[in-house]
Write a structure and sequence with these properties.
With 159 residues, the protein is an all-alpha fold. The protein has a domain of 75 residues. 69% of the residues lie in helices and 0% in strands. It is built from seven helices and no strands. The longest helix has 33 residues. It is flat, with a radius of gyration of 24 Å.
Length: 159
């Protein structure tokens, strides 16, 4: 706890009272923060970022959102004996949503990659899509560097 807060709460006699006081002061709705995060996620595009930077920013926002909207644990025990695997299916849908957002935000140079990924059955995980796009980005960089070296060699030979 920082010093300013410690001064404010130093008079409280026990942990239960401290928790109650903190909750009343700071336990406000996460609605505005969730809204802001959702807006940032939806508007984030690769633009001039590398794949690593773009994915890193998305992942940070997704992780922050997850911390605000985490599922509560089952207290009745029904999920432990559930045979329909609803939690696993929900996690898969969330993973697909993330993968789609990642693909939607990629630069136009990845259109072929997006088409190839979307034609895979089953759809790959977000981590696999990240790895694929990162490899393609590196290959484009190598090819671009090769073209530049070739152009320089041609101009040197012409001189």
């Amino acid at each position: 706890m920082n010093n300013e807060l410690a001064d404010d709460f130093g008079y409280i006699g026990n942990v239960v009272e401290l928790w109650k006081e903190l909750n009343e002061r700071f336990g406000q709705s996460n609605g505005p923060l969730i809204y802001q995060l959702k807006k940032e996620i939806d508007s984030l595009n690769q633009e001039n970022m590398t794949i690593v930077t773009y994915y890193g920013k998305l992942k940070k926002l997704w992780d922050e959102m997850q911390s605000l909207r985490a599922f509560s644990t089952c207290t009745c025990g029904a999920l432990s004996s559930c045979s329909c695997q609803i939690l696993k299916k929900m996690a898969k849908f969330e993973e697909e949503d993330k993968m789609m957002k990642f693909l939607l935000g990629l630069n136009g140079g990845f259109e072929g990659t997006v088409t190839n990924v979307l034609s895979m059955d089953p759809l790959p995980s977000i981590n696999r899509v990240f790895a694929i796009t990162q490899q393609i980005e590196k290959q484009k960089q190598v090819n671009s560097a090769g073209v530049e070296v070739g152009a320089m060699s041609s101009s040197v030979m012409a001189a």
